[in-house]
Amino acid sequence: MTSDPKTVLILATMDTKGPESLYVRRKMEEQGLRPILMDLSTAGGRKRSGADIASGEVAKAGGAGLRPFASSRNRELDTATMVSGAVKIAHRLLREKNLHGILGIGGYSGSFMASEVMHTLPFGFPKILVSSAAAIPGLSTRFLQTSDILLFNSVVEIAGLTGLLKNVLDRAALALAGILQGRVTEPSTARTKAIAMTMLSPCEKCARAVRAGLEKRGYAVVGFHAAGMGDRAMEAMISEGLFRGVIDLAPGGVGEHLYGFMRDAGAHRLESAGRIGIPQIISTCGVNHITPRKSKYTREHDLRRRYDLDGLRTWLRMSPKELKDVAALFARKLNQALGPVKVLIPMRGWSSVDSAGHPTYDPEEDGLFTAELGRALRKDIDVLEIDANMEDPEFAEAVLRVSMKMF
Predict the structure, then answer these.
(1) In which order are the strands placed within the sheet that holds 150-153?
(2) Which of 9, 154, 357, 368 is most buried, taking the most CB atoms under 10 A from its CB?
(3) What is the 3-state secondary structure (H, E, C) of the chain?
(4) Per mean pLDDT, which of 235-244, 305-314, 317-326 is the most reliable?
(5) What is the pLDDT of residues 47-72, one digit of tens each?
(6) How does pLDDT run across 77-118, given as a tens digit for each residue?
């Protein structure tokens, strides 16, 4: 492809995926790439695997040797050691500007190990994971987490170089070669007035209006789907210094984490912007609803007021105690902020779900949250009550007015 071939790291457990890994390496060489095959297996060491970076070298980088693995019964510790070593080697290659992409192949365990390495690589760095476990319910989100991994479902088991499997591996190798051949826009936001904004379908109209208004004023608005994993990714990217401000329309993941529900956004939700001191505007879409898994509904959940978003998603109304508890948690997090904070409360409902005529609409109960938040927040953090529903144009205009003063 070029006179200066791009280097690609291949991650695999050679004790179970040896021939398949060697096939991928040959395929990448045919495309003019410079592949480096790393062996992540913990059972290696007794014979040569054909890897460019042997499992013993990976284990050593992780602070151990392969010999103890033979008698070890702690599989979790063994794999953690190999992942640690692989991360160190990958980042050394990256620092030396000798790494341009990464491809992992594996089943259940191999995919976990490869994805853990990929999670540590920066946004925008090409990452492809070919996994025979990708379609197992619940596993794909664990492989991806907040990383921009391209997850490639092999469908067939990665065992034996049949025509079907070669087709899968060929397409994955060619996909990475194609990514590396073209010019890709750099993910940096350093030269733009970039704002992070949470978005969710029940406040989509507001988010669109705010984004359009900011873009007219020269800002780049990067949206994050606030259903748990998206807002975790936003927190991580805020910590990397990619944004000059945050408009957090949908921070419901704070309460969801408190109770362990489906939009759980992690223990550090609503903290990153405050920690680095950038301005943040906070609102309340989805905060007054909860989303426990239906399989875990209690008798009390069955009795709550509810709104069915669609055939898969149901929002239940928060109880008065939950509203107060979540408000107190918001205050504890926001009180730690080193930069300016404004909270905007739409007084006629916090989303399209939460509007007059809908079963969960209860502005009087929502006032419990607002009162507790106002009581517990630092005196320099303003809580602004807007006489509108969040999806009304008046609310989006209020967000824009505040944005122009803060950003």
Answers:
(1) 34-39, 7-12, 101-106, 127-131, 150-153
(2) 9
(3) CCCCCCEEEEEECHHHHHHHHHHHHHHHHHCCCEEEEEECCCCCCCCCCCCCECHHHHHHHCCCCCHHHHHCCCHHHHHHHHHHHHHHHHHHHHHCCCCCEEEEEECHHHHHHHHHHHHCCCCCCCEEEEECCCCCCCHHHHHHCCCCCEEEECCCCCCCCCHHHHHHHHHHHHHHHHHHHCCCCCCCCCCCEEEEEEECHHHHHHHHHHHHHHHHCCEEEEEEECCCHHHHHHHHHHHCCCCCEEEECCCCHHHHHHHCCCCCCCCCCCCHHHHHCCCEEECCCCCCEECCCHHHCCHHHHCCCEEECCCCCEEEECCHHHHHHHHHHHHHHHCCCCCCEEEEEECCCCCCCCCCCCCCCCHHHHHHHHHHHHHHCCCCCEEEEECCCCCCHHHHHHHHHHHHHHC
(4) 317-326
(5) 567 899 999 899 999 987 666 665 56
(6) 888 999 999 999 999 999 999 999 999 999 989 999 999 999
**Which distant-in-sequence residues (6+ apart) come within 8 Å of 397 by Cβ?**
209
- Among 285, 281, 222, smallest CA distance to 250 is for 285
Q: Against a cut of 0.90, is the pTM above it?
A: no
Phi, psi (5° rounding) for residue 280? -140, 135
Residue 261 token pair? 């529900």
Cα distances (angstroms) measured from residue 362 to each of 92, 309, 359? 56, 18, 9
CA–CA distance from 142 to each of 116, 136, 147, 174 (Å)?
Answer: 10, 11, 10, 25
CA atoms of 189 and 186, how far apart (whole Å)? 9
- The full set of domains in the chain, from first to last, is 7-181 (3.40.50.12020), 193-406 (3.40.50.12030)
Q: CA-CA distance, 193 to 147, in Å (whole number)?
A: 23
